[in-house]
Specification:
The chain is mostly beta strands and 732 residues long. 1% of the residues lie in helices and 46% in strands. The strands form 18 sheets. Strands 28, 30, 31, 33, 34, 35, 37 and 40 form an eight-stranded mixed beta sheet that branches. Strands 36, 38, 39, 41, 42 and 43 form a six-stranded mixed beta sheet that branches. Strands 3, 4, 7, 8 and 9 form a five-stranded antiparallel beta sheet that branches. It comes from Kryptolebias marmoratus (Mangrove killifish).
């Protein structure tokens, strides 16, 4: 008998005569009424696969391929109910051999998969294993997992991981299994989980089991033995889902409370119980707390002194013969003094430590027990750490540390940037041994301001230096301000005000700007009102970050100015954060060339290169000025007034006039004062810092030289020559 969907092994062997040599093995499935099985009944053939029935192809294998072993056993996989019937064997060789038939029935699957469930603990990841029935090497079955709650339909288990495994046991046998990995919770307790195995041909079998999930035990952590005056901290926890309700109680009291007690006394001793309620379950655990009272200060114990106290330590010897003649004092193992006494005129925190005295005589030496001196002092070295600039919504952590004994209490205070005199308490922490306090929150615009950390203990109070926190908001980003208030009766109206505008800008509890611009920066405050009165918030400063705008170029001195003179160009721009770099460009025929950096550019004025521009850059972008053309006066052409008079100095060294003629006759000499004649002349000149005047008519030269007086010339430059032709004027 075999199960549908599984497999069956038909054991078979044969014996032949000595001279018989087998060449192939053929298995048939044919009706018992047939006298002889024919080729159409073949289900397996060792040498001719084409003769095998279609429904058996690939499902039948010979366990031992070597026919000389006389082993004709076969395995049939993926059994179907139609496989029931009579099977016969024929061994072909030089003589044919036909076995007696073998019959086996195939029936529907009755074997169920095997489901292995370990101990389930809530919150601990676990693995469930489902193994398919049978050890067949045929087609791989499909294994699925479903979960069904009480009175609910089946569904897939969420947040699970399934893994399919196939294990080869022998060349013809395999074990198929699936592993389900998931985190059990209380909602899985008492529910059913089903493993379903699907074989080829639509044959299925399944197994259903119930889940039992255990809740983890209650854990109590903390030091159960403390000294009088110390802090008792106990933590009760239980890993469960959903979270359990945890409560503390002390036997003999009715009050429930959290066990965190500072400066404990003897009456704190006793039995405490932590109770955790989880669904219908109640778990509890007890702990016994012991408070130890320190003995009166004596050698070998800890004593406390205040900073500045005058202290005398004395080394007393109970028995000695002869009496000690030498005393040595040590602090933390190092020599610090000699003598029967060791004095502190004003004890300091660094004087604390473990002190011993050693007494010596001529025979030997003796050492006292250690005495621990603890110096109490107010907080010092208070350090507040926080980022100077954050984005809105970013999580930030503020850390405050101090040095003190006993440990200090911490308080974080914030004041707005606009009103440093008024501050609010952001967070408070009780004393801890590490003398450190951290506070984490998601930054909003309201968190911008100046922060200080105030630290105090029994000896005094100190505070850190102010640290500024700026919440970044870029141009075109949106921001919202919330107006929160507590009142009875409830708040009936809200009013938002901006100091720079000095007017109301909103009447809802939330004021929103969808696209911020630089003009949206300023001090905001809100006013909440009910039927009894009005309350007003501290102002909140909103700073908008934007790239450089209104970038301009200014010139000093202002033009016009002579060529080759020194000129300063200044680049100015409005930006937040401030401009971090400037770049100067010279514009030459449409092409821009970098000529310098920095907000000020010093140049020598030139008529050739007179167009400049600058760019200003910060972390958000770059601003660009317009092209600025300098008003430069050329030294090659001085400007003239409307009456043709020279407007600038002209310097000439001498003037030589000669007649140009091939004949050198006396009568050809010319009187320069005569008019109506035409002459050619050359002009030789010296040029200084002034420009030259050019005349259109030689008759004007007399008046020109009368007005343009020469001045001292420091250096002679290349001579320039001008040719002037005088024409005779016609008489009217």
């Amino acid at each position: 008998t075999a199960e549908a969907g599984l497999c069956v092994v038909i054991p078979c062997s044969f014996t032949t005569g000595y001279y018989f040599s087998p060449t192939n093995v053929v298995w048939f499935k044919c009706e018992a009424t047939k006298k002889k099985c024919v080729d159409s009944d073949i289900i397996f053939h060792t040498t001719n696969f084409n003769k095998v029935q279609t429904t058996f192809k690939g499902r039948v294998s010979l366990l031992e391929p070597d026919l000389d072993q006389r082993n004709c056993s076969i395995i049939i996989n993926d059994l179907q109910e139609s496989d029931s019937g009579l099977y016969q064997l024929r061994v072909n060789g030089f003589l044919n051999y036909l076995s007696n038939g073998i019959t086996f029935p195939s029936r529907s699957a009755v074997f169920k998969p095997s489901v292995v469930i370990p101990l389930l603990t809530e919150g601990q990841q676990t693995n469930l294993t489902c193994t398919a029935p049978g050890l067949c090497s045929g087609s791989r079955p499909e294994i699925t997992w479903t979960w069904r709650g009480n009175g609910e339909s089946s569904s897939q288990i969420t947040e699970n991981i399934t893994d399919f495994h196939t294990e080869d046991l022998t060349p013809f046998t395999q074990r198929h299994s699936s592993t389900l990995t998931f985190n059990p919770s209380s909602e899985h307790h008492g529910t059913n989980i089903t493993c379903k195995v699907s074989f080829t041909g639509g044959i299925t079998t399944e197994e259903t089991v119930m889940l039992n999930v255990n809740v983890k035990e209650v854990k109590i952590t903390g030091d159960t033995s403390v000294r009088e005056g110390e802090t008792l901290n106990l933590t009760c926890s239980v890993d469960s889902f959903p979270p359990s309700d945890v409560m503390w109680a002390k036997f003999g009291t009715e009050n429930l409370f959290s066990v965190s007690i500072s400066n404990v006394t003897l009456d704190v001793s006793g039995l405490y119980i932590c109770t955790a309620k989880h669904g219908n379950k109640t778990l509890s655990k007890t702990v016994n707390i012991t408070v130890n009272k320190s003995p009166s200060p004596s050698s070998g114990n800890t004593v406390h002194f205040k900073e500045g106290d005058q202290i005398v330590l004395e080394c007393n010897v109970k028995r000695s013969n002869p009496q000690p003649d030498t005393f040595i004092w040590k602090r933390n193992g190092k020599d610090v003094g000699k003598g029967k006494t060791y004095e502190f005129n004003q004890i300091k925190p660094e004087d604390g430590g473990n002190y011993t005295c050693e007494a010596r005589n001529s025979v030997s030496s003796g050492k006292s027990k250690s005495l621990h001196l603890q110096v109490q002092f107010p907080p010092t070295n208070v350090q507040l750490t926080l980022p100077p600039e954050v984005k809105e919504g970013q999580s930030i952590t503020i850390t405050c540390t101090a040095e003190s004994f006993p440990p200090s209490n911490f308080k974080i205070l914030r004041s707005s940037l606009s009103n440093s005199q008024s501050s609010e308490n952001i967070s408070t922490s009780s004393a801890n041994e590490r003398n450190t306090f951290t506070h984490t929150f998601d930054a909003t615009l309201a968190h911008a301001g100046s922060y200080i950390c105030e630290v105090s203990n029994s000896e005094g109070t100190n505070h850190s230096a102010k640290r500024k926190l700026e919440v970044k908001l870029k141009e075109n980003e949106s921001f919202s301000l919330n107006c929160n208030g507590q009142s009875n009766p409830p708040i009936t109206s809200y009013t938002w005000m901006k100091k720079t505008d000095n007017k109301n800008i909103g009447r809802t509890s939330v004021y929103t700007v969808k696209s911020a611009s630089p003009s949206d920066g300023g001090l905001y405050s809100c006013e909440a009102k009910n039927t009894i009165g009005t309350g007003r918030s501290q102002p909140v400063e909103v700073k908008i970050k934007y790239s450089p705008k209104i970038t301009t170029v200014s010139v000093s001195p202002s033009g016009p100015f002579p060529e080759n003179s020194q000129v300063s160009l200044t680049c100015s721009s409005d930006a937040n954060p401030a401009v971090k770099s400037y770049t100067w460009y010279r514009a030459d025929g449409g092409q821009e060339t970098v000529v310098g950096t920095g907000s000020v550019l010093n140049i020598t004025a030139s008529t050739v290169n007179s167009v400049f521009l600058c760019t200003a850059e910060n972390d958000l972008g770059t601003g660009r000025s317009k092209n600025h053309k300098l008003d430069v006066q050329s030294s090659e052409g001085a400007r003239r007034s409307s009456d043709n008079k020279c407007e600038e100095d002209v310097v000439y060294s001498n003037m030589d006039w000669t007649k140009r003629s091939k004949k050198k006759k006396r009568e050809n000499d010319v009187d320069m004062n005569q008019s109506g004649s035409s002459y050619l002349a050359e002009e030789k000149c010296l040029a200084g810092d002034a420009g030259k005047c050019f005349v259109s008519n030689a008759l004007e030269m007399g008046g020109l030289y009368a007005e343009c007086k020469p001045r001292n010339v420091k250096m002679e430059v290349d001579c320039e020559y001008a040719q002037v032709q005088f024409k005779k004027k016609r008489e009217k």
